[in-house]
Amino acid sequence: MTERKVNIAIIPAAGFGARMHADRAKQMIELGGVPLLVHTLRRFEECPSIDQVILVLQPSLTSEVLALVSRHNLKKIVRVVGGGAERQDSIYRGLQVIREESAGIICIHDAVRPFVRPDEIRAVTERAEATGAAIMALPATDTIKQAKSGRVYRTLDRKRIYQAQTPQAFRYAIIREAYDRAYTEGFLATDDSQLVERAGHRVSIVEGSAINIKITRPFDLRLAEVINSEYFS
After folding, report:
1. What is the pLDDT of residues 184-201, one digit of tens each?
2. Tell me: the pLDDT tens digits for 39-56?
3. Do residues 53 and 8 make contact, with C-beta atoms less than 8 angstroms apart?
4. Which of 1-5, 62-66, 140-144, 193-197 has the lowest mean pLDDT?
5. What pLDDT is stored for residue 21 in this prediction?
6. Interhelix angle 118-131/36-45, nearest 10 degrees
7. Longest Cα pair distance anywhere in the chain, in angstroms?
8. Which CATH number fits domain 6-228: 3.90.190.20, 3.90.550.10, 3.40.50.1000, 3.40.50.300?
9. Strand-pair category, 6-13 with 52-57
10. H-type helices in 30-171, by residue range?
């Protein structure tokens, strides 16, 4: 009998968040009395398209986070893995603990994007099941200039420009091949889709949401407080 494929989310939460200028890792900063990481994990807990979650952490946070997982009844977390120096390293470590024979779609999401909705996770996962690779992305609303040495030399067609978000979802074989190739060749990307594109695969787009923000700087946290109050309370 063929083993049922399992859809797995990898949540990289091993960063320190220097741009937040906080006294602790930004994923542990509280929003409405609950750490950002817990808000994010709840979205995946509520999404029926995701079966399991692999959490990649700073080792120093493991005990604290496991206590939060228990307190908030987050049942989908099956592994906690120590993170690496870069986000890409952390995700690769997560990929390496997945059993290939049972892996379905791998859904990768930033720990500090707490406002993704379960139906958006489902949409990206389903598109990846159909096409092999899919990401959430937001159509550009501003005019985009390409510059060199402080001067504009090209105005890009806004209708063809998207701002990449997460989640980003891929068939296991595709994302693992892309990561293996990147490490063999010493290539560091800014997101997972870039590695998959570089390996020769097409990536589909699911239109994103303006409230699916990544909390990086103090201003983002203030904006998050408004979003949380208006949309999630």
Report:
1. 999 999 999 999 999 999
2. 999 999 999 999 999 999
3. yes
4. 1-5
5. 63
6. 60
7. 62
8. 3.90.550.10
9. parallel
10. 36-45, 62-71, 87-96, 118-131
